Automatic annotation (TrEMBL):
Domain of life from the UniProt record: Bacteria
Calcineurin-like phosphoesterase domain span: 23-222
Name of protein: UDP-2,3-diacylglucosamine diphosphatase
Biased composition, class Low complexity, residue ranges: 277-291
SUPFAM superfamilies for this protein: Metallo-dependent phosphatases
Keyword Cell inner membrane found: yes
E.C. number: 3.6.1.54
Pfam family, one: Metallophos
PANTHER family, alphabetized: BLL8164 PROTEIN, UDP-2,3-DIACYLGLUCOSAMINE HYDROLASE-RELATED
Length: 291
């Protein structure tokens, strides 16, 4: 899914058509409170899969957008209710706030309605991999793109998302499935792909610094896998453009899935877990240590 040109991608094995038992599900960038949130599609996924653990990896609620205009329709309300039912029914739910819901970071360390709020997490897969989990906005300071280009990109992104809504309303009238216009346009943008590549490198560098096997995050709305120097990068995508999630199966394998639970891509399985390092004061950067 990602299109970085700075390093070769690992070859992915053929993926099965659908996912079986789900040990862990990672979801980010839902942007509840906005008209772009694809709450109905995410709710369909949560009806199809029943994870033992659910990570909500930031920007679940778009508090920034809600300052100007709040949209919380019946589909979004039903999605919130479904997540809370999962938490009550025994699914371990961990909420890691992002930059659009950063106000919730003051709640880190608390448990609300059976949902644990954390700044970051270390997830151990069934196969023994240790993965850093964070939203990813802390890596923006490592991306060397002109600020005016990023600002222009943000404005264009909002406009494209509005076109995306109208496009998919028209497709729905003709019985066509969801399709991301925003994603198709971003794949053709060299600036966007340079940003993605630098973001991925920063995330893998942080995982490597901490002696971990990989990284899981969101933030950039571009799902996919990448491997570099034995470190696995995973991005679970979003629920305003791509409608994807990251799922760990019963054996610890990681898959990128769509809203129907269909596997789009599978992470390489041959990487060996790294030994856990001794704790050192330099293991965490100031960006990662911040509340």
């Amino acid at each position: 899914m990602t299109a970085s040109q700075s390093a070769p991608r690992a070859e992915m094995p053929p993926a099965p058509d659908a996912l079986g038992q789900v040990r862990t599900l990672f979801i980010s960038d839902v942007h509840l409170g906005t008209p772009d949130c694809q709450a109905a599609l995410l709710a369909k996924l949560l009806r199809r899969v029943r994870p033992e653990r659910l990570y909500l990896v930031g920007d679940i609620v778009d508090l920034l957008a809600m300052r100007k205009r709040a949209v919380l329709d019946k589909d979004q309300q039903a999605l919130v209710a479904r997540v809370l039912r999962l938490a009550r029914s025994g699914c371990e739910v961990i909420y890691i706030p992002g930059n659009h819901d950063a106000a919730f970071r003051r709640l880190c360390g608390l448990k609300l309605h059976n949902v644990s709020v954390e700044r970051r997490a270390i997830h151990t897969t069934g196969s023994g991999r240790r993965l850093l989990v964070s939203h990813g906005d802390e890596f923006d300071t490592h991306v060397r793109i002109a600020p005016w280009l990023l600002k222009l990109g943000d404005g264009m992104h909002g406009f494209i998302l509005s076109l995306n809504r109208w496009c998919n309303r028209a497709r729905g009238i003709f019985g066509l499935p969801y399709w991301s216009l925003a994603s198709a346009l971003k794949r053709r943008s060299g600036t966007a792909q340079r940003y993605v590549a630098q973001f991925e490198e920063a995330a893998m560098r942080q995982a490597r610094l901490e002696g971990l096997d990989g990284y899981v995050g969101g933030h950039i709305h571009q799902a996919g896998f990448r491997v570099e120097e034995g470190v696995l990068y995973c991005n679970d995508g979003d629920w305003v453009e791509h409608c994807t999630a990251l799922a760990e199966d019963a054996e610890g394998a990681l898959h990128l899935i769509d809203w129907q639970g269909q596997i789009l891509e599978t992470a390489p399985r041959h990487l060996m877990p790294r030994p856990a390092p001794a704790a050192t004061p330099d293991a965490v950067t100031p960006e990662m240590a911040g509340a």
